[in-house]
Amino acid sequence: MKEGISVTGMGIICAIGNDCAQVLDSLKQGRSGIRKMKYLESVHRDIPVGEVMMSNARMHSLLGIPEGETVSRTSMMGAIAIREALSRAGDISGKRVALISGTTVGDLDITEKYFQRMKTDDSLLNLPHSNECGTSTMEMARLTGLSNAQVCTISTACSSALNAIILGCEMLRSGEADVVVAGGSESLSRFHLNGFNTLMILDRAQCRPFDASHAGLNLGEGAAFVVLTKDARNPLCYIGGYGNRCDAYHQTASSDDGEGAFLAMSEALSLSGLKASDIQYVNAHGTGTPNNDYSESQALRRVFGENIPEVSSTKAFTGHTTSASGSIETVMCILAMLHDFTPANLGWKSPVEGGIVPTSGHIGVKLDNVMCNSFGFGGNDSSLVLCREPRPLPELVKARNCTVAACVTVTSAEELSGLREFISPMESRRMGKLMKAALLASLKALQSAGLQTPDAIISATSRGMLELSQQFMDNIDEGGEELLSPTLFMQSTHNTLGSAVAIRTRCHGYNTTYSQGEESELWALRDAERLIRSSRADSVLVGIFDESTPAFDSFSQRTGTKVPAPLYAKAMILTAEK
What pLDDT, in 10s, does the model give residues 286-342? Predict the structure, then answer.
């Protein structure tokens, strides 16, 4: 057993504050940041959001970015949060450092602003245009002096940042890094706003998680990062445990019994060595949608029984900051632990039938152990336990080797007819080409390995569902922000592919997606090998999925970079060597 993983620094920027001190004051005062749009340009001015109250120009100046250099809002917010976290953590020079960020939109705010002009204007080709989440993380590293760090990006929709923290803990446990800076950043964009609007889950007033009148969520933006290490002398708190599981139910909805959330919370408690009764506060995912609030309530009851600790959702303060929510709410949990209070669940008046009763907030409450939940599209559910006292985590012992039991590659549209062996034409008719290829390669690989369900699914993708994402963006530009297709948006997140495989195979195990350009596959294989070598999985499906489009090919040709393959799906089944 080793000393526990410590949190030595933290930084945050969101709708209720531009640093930890401002956020703490807003939480204690019950001051929400949900308001009318100020910076995001959209026709939907009636939709309230949780914007960071700082212009791009101000961020640009604050970070000392040279005039004329274009940097995305996502990258700038992330850099601001990282700088604050590092200022508290102390000297990390001479250490092996990793920077891990969770995001879905990445540099999309720049892409959607210039996308149509980029198609013909060569002077704009140096701007981000690739749908690669990893670009924003590389920018954060450059802006914060971490250019020599290992850089990795997780993209699992709204659980991305919490999964980034989980990966950081895993790397520390396995000795792959000395210090990890982990969290996430996400800016508001027309793409995201309109996408959630097509799903009809946006509230036109301040959201009210777990309240009988709840009508949906408010979108927000922001960033938060924590600094993790194993040898801290003056930590803020400790990582007690964590869990990541898949609901394997639906691309955008949670199951009625909250199976994925229940498994994630149970795994986090098990790793921590704590009992459910040891948790004094849970920061719920709590989006304010009827589906989430009911499903999470059932999961909480399954974990805690009749003795549910104080629970609140802080999304009525910040809005749902999507991929950054897990780290933003982790920092809020740490602030609550350090200052002895529980954040209020703003807007709650009466319970939903079958729902939990959240806390109105309390001052002077000592919190020794708290839990933070973060759930994403595709049923990607993660949970983190934070502790006042160290909770030594077992060292990851590399007890066995792994081998490739099967490998299947799909590289042409003509091969997709083979999917009929597994899925009816009716089921596949709304799927994009890459999803069809990913499912075909994955199901054939499992068949070849003699497996129905793997223990875990890990995906790697540079650009995700590029064709459908660009189509959704084109529809916004050409037809306006009305009458858009929810199907296109539902398949636009990078983890859609791994989630689809999990839903098809009913895999409730560990599920994550790496999106770090050409290094994505290496990160995915590294993670899979870590699971198998440490005996936490006997079989892992690793999928490498990417596609290109005519527009992206044109960009590549005009910039003199390598033109990617139009379609590429490779699925490998890694198993323990016998």
Answer: 999 999 999 999 999 999 999 999 999 999 999 999 999 999 999 999 999 999 999
Residue 251 CA to residue 499 CA, distance in Å, equals 7
Select which of 285, 333, 387, 494 is catalytic. 285
Q: Is 568 helix (H, G, I), strand (E, B) or coil?
A: strand
Looking at the DSSP assignment, which residues form a beta bridge with residue 402?
A: 576
Least Cα distance to 218 among 226, 206, 228, 235 occurs for 206
Active site residue 214: no
Which one is catalytic: 133, 158, 246, 372? 158
Distance CA 162, CA 228 (A): 13
Alpha carbons 511 and 501: distance in angstroms, whole number: 10
Contact 319, 47 (CB under 8 A): no
Give the angle subtended at the CA of 103 by the CAs of 36 and 382, to the nearest 5°.
100
Q: Which entry of 129, 192, 214, 320 is annotated as an active-site residue?
A: 320
Residue 490 in tokens: 């539902």
SS3 content of the chain, % helix, strand, coil (to 5): 40, 20, 40
User: Is 44 a known active-site residue?
Assistant: no
* Catalytic-residue membership of 320: yes
